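anyone seen this seq b4? input:
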Amino acid sequence: HCVLGTWGQNIHAAVADELARWELSTQHAAFRVLKGLNPMTEQYSAVQAEVPDARDPQTQANRALIERARPNGGLLLVAGEAASHCVASTMEHLFTELTANERARVVILSDCMSPVGSFEEQGRKFFAQARALGARIMTSNEALAELA
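predicted toks r here
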């Protein structure tokens, strides 16, 4: 959610190192999504801006991301920052695109995100709304056990 080109917009060094290690070991490139490229509209969601600009496709629904996020018989594991804002907004938009069966394959990794400070209630509401839509809330260890 930080301004493009500032340190806050970067992928955390430890995460970037692990992505690079994964890319080398699998010989696949990670799918990266840049958001918030239009300074005239807010974009918490990785799917689309809060107020899409009809003249700017980057603010409209990211169809490539939506299609890549479909569980397709597997699980969609969701992690990121922040549960109260960016993750919540992204999932709100994504849930509208997913079928009930696909939403049942979404796993929100509760220990792999946190709310913005003083927005804990919004984080709890996000978990409750996701659960009401059919998603499961798990810790990363619980999800790993299910995948084993």
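The mean pLDDT is 94. The beta strands are 76-78, 106-109, 136-138. kinda curious what u guys think
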